[in-house]
Amino acid sequence: MVEKTPFSFKTLSALIGLIILIMISLQIGVLGTANINDSVFTISRLPRTIAVLLTGAGLAVAGMVIQLIVHNRFVEPNTTGTGEGAAIGLLLTVLLFPAAPLIVRMGFAALCAMLSLLIFLTLAKRLPPTDPLLLPLVGMIYAGILQSIMAFIGYETDLLQWLSVWLNGDFSAVLKGRYEFLWGCAIVLVILYWLADRLTIVGMGESSSQSLGLNYRQLVFCAILLIALISAFITATVGNIAFLGLVVPNLIRRICGDNLRHALPWIAWTGASLLLICDILARIVSFPYEIPVSLIFGIFGGSLFLYLLMRPSR
């Protein structure tokens, strides 16, 4: 178990490791380090690194919260249709209200993400609780249906190429002025940490929550809203990154357990660190060109997802 002291050697090591990754990320680019000026650093590299950290932490924690409220460790935003719902919302605002400001697009994306997650939860209630692998399979089918709807809309409106770029998580276009909404993920993470003890009890089930005096439905709705906001912020800024919200919570829960207050900082750190490592690799594998970070993480995350499906914990 990770020590529960406020500040331990493991905490210090984690901070130092993250700082090293940040320094490496800030040094990597087409121009190298000798030919950059302050504007390149502040407009491109620093915003990109911050965006990666916020995205990784947000997706990882969102995955943990979804797993708690559906009582299944094989689900994440991209196997519950949440990310796809946010993408559909953004696509519809682009088509119907092309002049709408970004905050309106974010709001509509969050609304569609929340609606999509509510539909998934409705489907989940109809499944037998004895088979934990059935729920993620249904979620993947459900997400696939939403992706097909997006592809059809994109085909009919000549937006397929734009949509394909959008759905592949990529930080190459992240610049100053185009990532600031991701700070909303940090605000949501603070709120989730404040609710951590209550959400941990929610993970024990409705009857246990009500017996301890909690409003189960209200807390679940609040969690759905916060997850939808994270999905909207990330989908609108960098696109879709699969498996991150699945892999990280399962790794950390094996060490920290299901106590969200204790596990949340480590989940956020692991998500941010892993995504930053993948983003660094995405920049150097085919240098001076880049590949989408979702492809790098998809290899690692997909492999671990299969392992988790084949060998569920007891």
Automatic annotation (TrEMBL):
GO cellular component terms attached to this protein's record: plasma membrane
Question: Biological process GO terms, please?
Answer: siderophore-iron import into cell
Q: Which domain of life is it from?
A: Bacteria
The membrane topology term of the UniProt record is:
Multi-pass membrane protein
Q: What is its main location?
A: membrane
Output the Gene Ontology terms for molecular function: transmembrane transporter activity
**CDD domains documented for this protein:** TM_ABC_iron-siderophores_like
Query: Among its keywords, does the record have ATP-binding?
Result: no
The record, for Pfam families, names:
FecCD
> What are the transmembrane regions?
12-30, 50-70, 82-100, 133-153, 180-196, 216-246, 266-285, 291-310
Alphabetical UniProt keywords: Cell membrane, Membrane, Transmembrane, Transmembrane helix, Transport
> Entry's InterPro entries?
ABC_BtuC-like, ABC_transptr_permease_BtuC
Q: Where in the cell is it found?
A: Cell membrane
Tell me the protein family, please.
Answer: Belongs to the binding-protein-dependent transport system permease family. FecCD subfamily.
UniProt name for this protein: Iron-uptake system permease protein FeuB
